[in-house]
Each structure stands twice: as C-alpha cells, then as structure tokens.
Amino acid sequence: MFSIVNGLVLKSSAILLDDTDRRLLELLQSDASLTNHALAEAAHTSPATALRRVRRLTDAGVIARQVALLNPDRIGHGLTALVEITLDRQGAEHLDAFEQRIADDDEVQQLWRVSPGPDFVLVVHCADMPGYQALAQRLFTQDANVRNVKAYFAVKRAKFDPRLKLPRA
User: In CATH, which of 3.30.70.920, 3.10.50.40, 1.10.760.10, 1.10.390.10 is domain 72-153?
Assistant: First the structure.
C-alpha cells in the first residue's frame, strides 16, 4: 500500500482490516485470555474463522504478542518515573550503544528514541526512591556520554490503556 504526502510516495506497512478482523482485534485488546470459542462467539464468526484470522494477523505482525498486564503497585514497583536523556555524542553508534544498554535493564519498561529535544524518553518502574537512585547511578551517572537527565515522578496514573484505535475501512 502506498500513499502520497506532499508529492512524495510513501510505502505503508499497514495491513487492510475488514470488519471481522477489527472485531477480533478489539476483543483481544480488551481480553487476550478469551478462548477461541468465546472469541468467535463474541465476534459473531465461527471458531475456525476466528482461529484462522488470529493466526493470519499474528503472522502479519498486527498482533505483536499477547501478555498479561500487571499492576506495578501490587508487585512492589511503587515508583514510576518518566526520564528524559540527552547524550553528548549523538552519532548512530553512540545512540545504538546507549539504547541497547538501557533496553537490557529490567526496570526500564519503555524506551523511546525521540526528536527533537532529548535523545531518549524512558518509563521506569522502581520499588521506591532509593531504587530509582540506584538505577540512575547504574544507567546514567556512570555513562560519560550522558549530558543531561531529567526525571518526572508519577504521583497518579490517571489513564493507562494499551489498546490502539483501529482504522476503519
């Protein structure tokens, strides 16, 4: 699929979805633990069709993976921080090396390379402030290429919804 933006032809990796695909995806985004039979019934299709469609959507990369979402407060991750990182040297090799090192840390839940502004934005979950301090020392303070760290500490999670709005035909 291609689209034209400002006279440029852009290739899109978006998959065309029909109504059945959208119903299945909406249901799975709300509850991925549904059995195939329950999914098919709720999507108003046969179990064979539901199974075949979900496999096709998975193979096409539309469904990246199915996971359980945990409540961080209930498992001892009471501190959430959004952290902006700016590096001194921003060559591809420096950005890639920093990204890989940070991505390997278990307390980093999300890692985004962004532009403009800082080079990276992270979402981290720690037990408490001493846990964040240890993380900052381990990941940022000892890295000579880190120029600036700016952390925002969550006081309330007003919304958390990983569902994506599905495009209409």
Answer: 3.30.70.920
C-alpha 2/C-alpha 4 separation (Å) is 7
**pLDDT tens column, 115-125:** 999 999 999 99
* Architecture of the domain whose range is 2-59: Orthogonal Bundle (1.10)
Q: Render the burial of 16-38: b for 16+ CB within 10 Å, e for the rest.
A: ebeeebebbbebbeeeeebeeee
pTM of the model: 0.80
Average pLDDT of span 76-101: 96
The answer to whether residues 121 and 84 touch, using CB atoms and an 8 Å cutoff, is yes
Residue 119: how many other CB atoms lie within 10 Å: 23
Residues ≥6 apart with Cβ < 8 Å to 136? 149, 151
